[in-house]
Amino acid sequence: MQIKVKDVNINYVMYGNQTSDTIVYLHGWGQNIDMMKPIADPFSKEFNILIIDIPGYGLSDEPKYPWTCYDYVECFKEMFDQLHIDNPILIGHSFGGKISLLYASKYPVKKMVLFGSPFKKEVQKLSLKVRVLKKLKKVPGLNKLEGFAKKHIGSDDYRHASDTMRKILVETVNLDITEEVKKIKCPTLIVWGTLDEAVPLARAYELEKLIKDAGVVVYENCTHYAYLENLNQTINVLWNFL
Question: How many of the other CB atoms lie within 10 Å of CB of 44?
Fold first, then answer.
């Protein structure tokens, strides 16, 4: 399905129990809806599920100009209003997590889950691909993602991006939202891998201190894609939290 917001066509899937709370899934940089479905499908009987191709990726249009993270927040607020979604549960990985943090600092959010979510400038290391692929091969049901992961995980995001998306990437990486994070009031679950080279584990504990009602779950020997590498544990942890 597609919806037009801010002159941009946004691709999304929405399914599940439409009488229940809505869980909104926001993927990481360079990814798409498929990377979130393994942690969305198990909850479709109990919750309304909304997974979005963040503008610039998947089947969504690129923004017409270099958006800031704040532009993404306003885009999603307008999208949620059009879809009659109030007080969502946000689940975000990496870039999607940063947008979730900003959204929750400004608008009502029932609960939030963050996977490897940056909130200040990080020096990116992109040598994750081999280790992540090896771990994903061991997870039942994720074989179909292997081809996509080979193409996107650990790729040179900047070199392969369009001019607009390059500018968005630079702005996003350099943006420090520490002061905004302090305003978040919703219960927040923070899940991190000890081997995350994109956003170090120390950031998880910093977020825990900055957010009033937050807790950290650590996955040993997992990378920036810990939520997929320990898929069964992630599903169990989400059930307990939600």
Answer: 15
Positions in the chain whose pLDDT score sits under 50: 125-127, 154-155
H-helix or E-strand containing 172? helix 163-174
Domains and CATH numbers, the chain: 2-241 (3.40.50.1820)
- Please answer whether residues 94 and 57 qualify as being in contact, where contact means their C-beta atoms are separated by less than 8 angstroms: no
| pLDDT tens digits for range 33-67 | 999 999 999 999 999 999 999 999 999 999 999 99
pTM, two decimal places = 0.89
Phi, psi for 99 (deg, rounded to 5): -65, -40
Q: What is the pLDDT of residues 75-109, one digit of tens each?
A: 999 999 999 999 999 999 999 999 999 999 999 99
Sheet holding 89-93, edge to edge: 2-5, 8-16, 48-52, 22-26, 89-93, 111-115, 188-193, 214-219
Question: DSSP string covering 27-52, please?
Answer: --TT--GGGTGGGTGGGTTTSEEEEE
Say if residues 83 and 13 touch (Cβ distance below 8 Å): no
Q: Which two tokens mark 229?
A: 């590498």
Q: Report CA Rg, the chain.
A: 16
Is 215 in contact with 190 (CB distance < 8 Å)? Answer: yes
Strands 48-52 and 8-16, sheet pairing: antiparallel
DSSP state of 130: H
